[in-house]
Amino acid sequence: MTYRAVARYPDAERIFLEVLAAKRETLGEKDRSTLTTINNLGNYYLTRKDFARAEEFFRTALDGRREVLGEEDEHTQISYSNVAAVLFQTKRYADALPLYQRAADGFTKVHTRDAPTTTLRVVRNQGICHARLGQREEAETLLLEVIDRSEKLQPGEKKVLLPDAAAELVRLYEDWGRPAAAAVWRVQLKEHLPVVREPAPPPRPAR
What is the rounded distance in angstroms from the CA atom of residue 123 to the CA atom of residue 142? Predict the structure, then answer.
């Protein structure tokens, strides 16, 4: 039974924990299937905003996947991104950044259908982390990269990534004191697709 199927049940936590206990007993702690269930529990707790337990299970899955699958495996990159997601949602942006960077570097080497979209989601989150830390130039570079590279994605994928990146650019430029640039992206955000790149005015001098 898949993660999504189990997660719909009211007693999903009990089911996941029972499955994990059985796998640990029969397959061992470091079996791929056991590590998948550990990761699924992390996802379960993350969706319920139990961040402490989510981080615990995600880090356990990451450690196991690094050891068993190696640093370059796609599932290891997913685990880096999952741990970063918990740090992101608990506003530990400086701690999330290196993990997102590790995941982004790894996903660029993975040749699967979902790799480009997954990579851009990670890059978008990197940009948001930089923005929340007041690192505006780094944030701008990454968010514009997401928009540029999104042009090659399927329409359905664009509808998720492009509005998100545009909304973050509006917020970034407003906080930066660049209202003209914010206005450009506010228009694009209302139109959703296509996003048209226009040069942003230079930042205002500090007063």
Answer: 6
Q: Six-digit token pair at 34? A: 């056991």
Query: How many H helices and E strands in the chain?
Result: 10, 0
Q: Do the beta carbons of residue 43 and residue 51 sit within 8 Å? A: no
* Three-state secondary-structure class, residue 203: coil
Give the closest residue to 84 by CA, choosing from 38, 121, 36.
121
Residues 103-162 pLDDT 10s: 999 988 876 666 788 889 999 999 999 999 999 999 999 999 999 988 888 877 788 788
Domains and CATH numbers, the chain: 1-110 (1.25.40.10), 113-200 (no CATH)
Let me know if 187 is exposed, middle or buried by CB neighbors in 10 A (0-12, 13-18, 19+). middle
> What's the pLDDT tens digit per position in 59-80?
999 999 999 999 989 999 999 9
